[in-house]
Specification:
- There is one protein chain.
- This protein is mainly α and 139 residues long.
- The chain contains four helices and two strands.
- The chain has a domain of 50 residues.
- Helix 2 packs across helix 3.
- It is elongated.
């Protein structure tokens, strides 16, 4: 680039002909966003409960706040609480039913083919039955 004797650019000559480069946007994947969200939810925050300070995960603090707002009569909080309760209940029932289905299939195999069933298989079926919620037990 042409400069004069004082080190200045000649008239009409730009010192930065290409200009400032554009700022490149950050490439953040959906997986990274998901991971950051769950990491932030596990951040410990201080609360005071029964006069004592303790640290709990942010997600738990949010749940506690939702329940307190619902208990105080906030209709939006009541609706959100009921949505979550129904979702969690449905997920629990579905998981218990899938375990029940595995137990029934296992016990059916034990009755139909007693000579082919190993003791380990019987222990596994018993462990599955023991892991069930008491309200879903077969016996």
């Amino acid at each position: 680039m042409a400069r004069n004797k004082f080190g200045q650019f000649e008239k009409g000559t730009c010192g930065n002909p290409r200009g400032r480069p554009r700022k490149m946007p950050l490439r953040i994947s959906d997986e990274q966003l998901r991971q950051d969200f769950f990491d932030a939810a596990e951040t410990l925050i201080p609360i005071v409960e029964n006069g004592k300070r303790k640290l709990i995960p942010a997600r738990l603090a949010i749940e506690k706040q939702l329940i307190l707002r619902a208990a105080s009569g906030d209709m939006k909080a009541i609706i959100e609480y009921n949505k979550r309760r129904e979702r969690y209940t449905l997920e629990h029932v579905k998981s218990q039913l899938s375990i029940l289905e595995a137990i029934v299939d296992g016990e059916d195999s034990i009755q139909r083919f007693p000579e082919d069933v190993t003791d380990e298989f019987k222990r596994t079926v018993k462990l599955l039955n023991d892991s069930l919620d008491p309200y879903f037990r077969l016996h």
